[in-house]
């Protein structure tokens, strides 16, 4: 062992009740071996008696926007061990937030695609290259994001915004680069446009009406994913005197039809956004709103853990099993009985390292 190499700490969490994706199991022992969940061959060097508390996989917020390191700490404090950024620039900022130890792990798209004249085009800091006017610019946009290391491509299907041909081209070029495509769609027209283009994920839920049975069936047939960001939609509805009930009914119908509904918040404290949604706590609010749409508490927990991992290709996390990333949250109370119990956080581990809140005494 070299002088600078530290021995791997192997921690046994004993007397802990694990969420296995369906139920809270009887007390058992979970091993944290370095960055991973250990197996029977791991030899503990440290023991934590959980005293019958509950262990969940770390939470995943499927829609955030970031401004700096403080956002990561706030999310980690609320048990969010992974966050999917849906628009942060410049790219140097996003890169600086990746790979930090013991705080929320980030995936990102970098700059989203929109068009001149769209609502998003008026964001003061938005780079010029985000404004995509035609199929030629669409090809260049995707190529640049891939070069920058984007994990997926984000399209803002505003109305007004990119026309159908341009959205189609953005999706087609992303497919050629084997990138997942997420569409921002807050109206029925934008949702339909996104479906015609063949996106993988539709984020937000419409406030101007309830999604039609035909569009919902297309979501099912094409195996699309919904990240409704109900926390943002509720705030926007209040700010703009629109009907949040349209969003709620759409999500209820999507869930009933079998469309995977994932937990994401659109947490974003930038000036000028329709509603300020705080990082961290908002995911717990989102989970409560999803229960209000008819998802069971167990389904909601999966919507913030294993399902995002599955659908966004994060195959090393989202469940508590040997060999997976040790992203874990320890809870006092049972979230299957009451989803509000996800707030009763005792401890958080990110890639095996315990998060220490900057606000702790």
Provide a short characterization of the protein structure:
The chain is built from eleven helices and 15 strands. With 361 residues, the protein is α/β, with parallel strands linked by helices.
Protein architecture, described:
The strands form 3 sheets. Strands 1, 2, 3, 4, 5, 13, 14 and 15 form an 8-stranded mixed sheet that branches. The protein is globular. The protein has helices spanning 69-77, 91-97, 135-148, 164-176, 188-197, 213-221, 230-240, 244-257, 281-291, 297-303, 306-311, and strands spanning 10-18, 28-33, 36-37, 46-49, 54-57, 59-64, 80-85, 105-108, 152-156, 180-184, 201-203, 225-227, 328-331, 345-350, 353-354. It has 361 residues and is of the alpha/beta class. Helix 2 links the parallel strand 7 (80-85) and strand 8. The two termini are 36 Å apart. The protein is built from 11 helices and 15 strands. The chain has 2 domains: 10-56 and 317-354, Urease, subunit C, domain 1, CATH 2.30.40; 58-311, Metal-dependent hydrolases (TIM Barrel), CATH 3.20.20. 49% of the residues are buried.
Mean of residue pLDDT values: 95
Order of helices and strands: EEEEEEHEHEHEHEHEHEHHHHHEEE
Could you estimate the helical fraction of the residues in percent? Answer: 25-40%
- Count of individual helical segments: 11
Uncertain spans? none
Query: What is the beta-strand fraction?
Result: 15-25%
Strand pairing plus helix content: what structural class?
Answer: alpha/beta
Count of separate structural domains? 2
Largest sheet: 8 strands, mixed
Shape: globular
| CATH topology term of the largest domain | TIM Barrel
Gross CATH architecture of the largest domain: Alpha-Beta Barrel
CATH class of the largest domain: Alpha Beta
Instruction: Tell how many strands the DSSP assignment holds.
Output: 15
N-to-C terminal Cα separation, in Å? 36 Å
Radius of gyration: 20 Å
For the record, what is the CATH homologous superfamily label of the largest domain?
Answer: Metal-dependent hydrolases
Domain Amidohydrolase-related: 54-353
Protein name: Amidohydrolase-related domain-containing protein
InterPro entries: Amidohydro-rel, Metal-dep_hydrolase_composite, Metal_Hydrolase, Metallo-dep_Hydrolase
Pfam family, one: Amidohydro_1
């Amino acid at each position: 062992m070299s002088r600078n190499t530290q021995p791997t700490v192997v921690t046994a969490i004993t007397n802990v009740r694990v969420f296995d994706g369906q139920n809270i199991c009887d007390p058992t022992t979970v091993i944290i071996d370095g960055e991973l969940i250990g197996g029977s061959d791991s030899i503990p060097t440290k023991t934590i008696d959980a005293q019958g508390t509950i262990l969940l996989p770390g939470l995943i917020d499927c829609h955030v926007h970031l401004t700096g390191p403080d956002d990561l700490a706030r999310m980690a404090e609320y048990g969010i061990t992974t966050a999917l950024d849906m628009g942060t620039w410049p790219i140097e900022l996003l890169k600086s937030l990746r790979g930090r130890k013991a705080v929320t792990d980030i995936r990102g798209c970098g700059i989203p695609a929109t068009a001149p004249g769209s609502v998003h085009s008026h964001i003061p800091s938005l780079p010029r290259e985000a404004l995509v006017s035609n199929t030629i610019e669409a090809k260049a946009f995707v190529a640049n994001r891939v070069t920058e290391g984007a994990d997926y491509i984000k399209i803002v299907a505003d109305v007004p915004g990119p026309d159908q041909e341009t959205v189609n081209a953005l999706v087609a070029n992303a497919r050629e680069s084997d990138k997942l495509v997420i569409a921002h769609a807050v109206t029925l027209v934008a949702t339909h446009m996104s479906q015609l283009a063949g996106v993988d994920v539709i984020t937000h839920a419409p406030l101007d009406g309830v999604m039609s049975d035909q569009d919902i069936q297309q979501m099912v047939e094409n195996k699309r994913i919904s990240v409704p960001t109900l926390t943002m939609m509720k705030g926007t509805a209040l700010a703009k005197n629109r009907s949040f009930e349209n969003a709620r009914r759409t999500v209820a119908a999507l869930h009933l039809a079998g469309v995977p509904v994932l937990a994401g918040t659109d947490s974003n404290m930038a000036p000028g956004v329709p509603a300020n949604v705080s990082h961290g706590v908002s995911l717990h609010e989102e989970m409560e709103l999803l229960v209000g749409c008819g998802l069971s508490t167990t389904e909601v927990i999966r919507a913030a853990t294993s399902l995002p991992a599955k659908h966004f290709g994060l195959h090393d996390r989202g469940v508590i099993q040997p060999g997976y990333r040790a992203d874990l949250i320890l809870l006092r109370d049972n979230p299957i009985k009451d989803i509000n119990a996800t707030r009763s956080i005792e401890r958080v581990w990110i890639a095996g390292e315990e998060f220490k809140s900057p606000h702790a005494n």
